[in-house]
Amino acid sequence: MRIAIVGAGPAGATAALALSRQGTHEIVLLDRDSFPRVKTCGSALSPRCISLCHTLGIETTMAPLAYPVSGLRFTGPSGRQATLTGKAGGAWIIPRARFDAEIAFAAERFGVRFEQGFKATTLVRDPRGRVAGVSDGQRTLEADLTLVADGAHSRFSSDLRKKRQIATLMGWWEGVEGVLPGHMEMWFDRRVAPWYGWLFPETTERVNIGIYYRPEDPVPPKDIFGEIVDRHLGRRLRKATQVQKYRGAPIVYTEEIGEVAAPGALWIGEAARLTNAATGEGIFYAMKSGVIAAELIARHGITDGDRLLTAYRTAIQRAFTARFLLALGFMRFANTPAFSLLTSLVAVPPVQKTLTWALEHV
Description:
D-Amino Acid Oxidase, Chain A, domain 2, 2 domains, 7-stranded mixed β-sheet, 27% strand
């Protein structure tokens, strides 16, 4: 089967790697950028992501690139703080430039044709309206099946609903004082409720600092960023050096799974709006949807196209619907006085355990 994959982020690259291991397909992985490339993302990999790396056979490759995380400095809306500690190395932080590239190049080593600098502009359709490949306006690549993984700005989305978005802004610093080894920081500040600001260490010296905020907020993003960072870092930044400029990007999420399949095509990752509305996490959902697509392609192939589309829709709904509902519930709770009250008691062990469980499972 000829398979074209549009987008080499975690969704597309994971699908390419998983499909390449089946050894029965002619696969081309396409991306408009040259790799490695910088991506606006906190770059935190949850335990579920690490498990998928193991499934894909790349855990031993990724582990040396990772900054292991075993805990979290949590600040609630009331300003109360707590340090929540879990399993050593239970999460990783790997800059997306390295993480995405490693998966894509691993797929290439398994025989995938990885074309960088290919800016797909059109999904090519046959006379019946079935997706039959992709074009950049100069070349057309025919395919029996196309996986669409072109992210939040997806030009090929088949979901006609209005997009629900979270805005992000982040930058990178070295020399921030008081960073606890092996710990991330999250600040659930009322200014950006129900979301948060963060500090995620990428190395012992370098951290990324960012915020989620409402796209419709009329205040300039850098002003919101400055307000949050001043409140939660303050003098800890006095000797720090910003080593990479600010970057921003939208995150697209959904309350329920929309249209993720059409004749000749499957949508994966953020192109299918598969992100966590509460935490902004998209990497796990991207990778998992890529794995699901690969498994169902192996099971049904293109000769059973209708069954493949139905099976994929059903599998995505089963895999993510409960998680999305839980995330939306947490997001709504995080915007209430009850959440502020709960987090004001973070020094109480049962509350710490509750918050640790919620953050691990949301």
